[in-house]
Amino acid sequence: MKSTARNQLQISLGEEFQVIGPPNAVFALVGEDVTLPASMSPALNAQGFDVRWTRNDFFKPVLLYQNSEIITKNQIEAYKGRTSLFTEELVNGNVSLRLQDVRVSDDGLYKCFVYSGQWEEDAHFTLNVEGNSQCQHNKHPKKKRAELKVQEELMLSF
């Protein structure tokens, strides 16, 4: 019996999988870009799957990938324009979240839900943001390192 691409897609949609992330928290400095690494095991093609990254509210996502596109309709306002997936890597089961210009408010728990149409799995991630709103983050294009300058207030008492 000849196997078609359609039959193969149906088989992968029904296959069980897990969403795997790092065992420990991910750390980032205020102003940096960070990746919350997540992958499917086994490494299935996730291009036709729903990928939803959330904080506290399932229906207000940090990022929603559905029907092969990023949906921004109900996205948390603070994340608009700062989140992405590695869409070219979805074929390898990479569902990692890329977060740009990290803020203190980004600190905390994230959840990644992956739904194939017949199977759903999720994983939890912790992002620890270091620095505060008084930190100024400067990236130097000619240097390979980032420089963090902290504004300090000096209190004098007499």
From TrEMBL:
<dbReference type="InterPro" id="IPR003599">
    <property type="entry name" value="Ig_sub"/>
</dbReference>
<dbReference type="GO" id="GO:0050852">
    <property type="term" value="P:T cell receptor signaling pathway"/>
</dbReference>
<keyword id="KW-0812">Transmembrane</keyword>
<dbReference type="GO" id="GO:0009897">
    <property type="term" value="C:external side of plasma membrane"/>
</dbReference>
<keyword id="KW-1133">Transmembrane helix</keyword>
<dbReference type="InterPro" id="IPR036179">
    <property type="entry name" value="Ig-like_dom_sf"/>
</dbReference>
<dbReference type="InterPro" id="IPR013106">
    <property type="entry name" value="Ig_V-set"/>
</dbReference>
<dbReference type="GO" id="GO:0001817">
    <property type="term" value="P:regulation of cytokine production"/>
</dbReference>
<protein>
    <recommendedName>
        <fullName>Ig-like domain-containing protein</fullName>
    </recommendedName>
</protein>
<keyword id="KW-1015">Disulfide bond</keyword>
<keyword id="KW-0472">Membrane</keyword>
<dbReference type="InterPro" id="IPR013783">
    <property type="entry name" value="Ig-like_fold"/>
</dbReference>
<dbReference type="InterPro" id="IPR007110">
    <property type="entry name" value="Ig-like_dom"/>
</dbReference>
<feature type="domain" description="Ig-like">
    <location>
        <begin position="31"/>
        <end position="128"/>
    </location>
</feature>
<dbReference type="GO" id="GO:0005102">
    <property type="term" value="F:signaling receptor binding"/>
</dbReference>
<dbReference type="Pfam" id="PF07686">
    <property type="entry name" value="V-set"/>
</dbReference>
<dbReference type="InterPro" id="IPR050504">
    <property type="entry name" value="IgSF_BTN/MOG"/>
</dbReference>
<keyword id="KW-0393">Immunoglobulin domain</keyword>
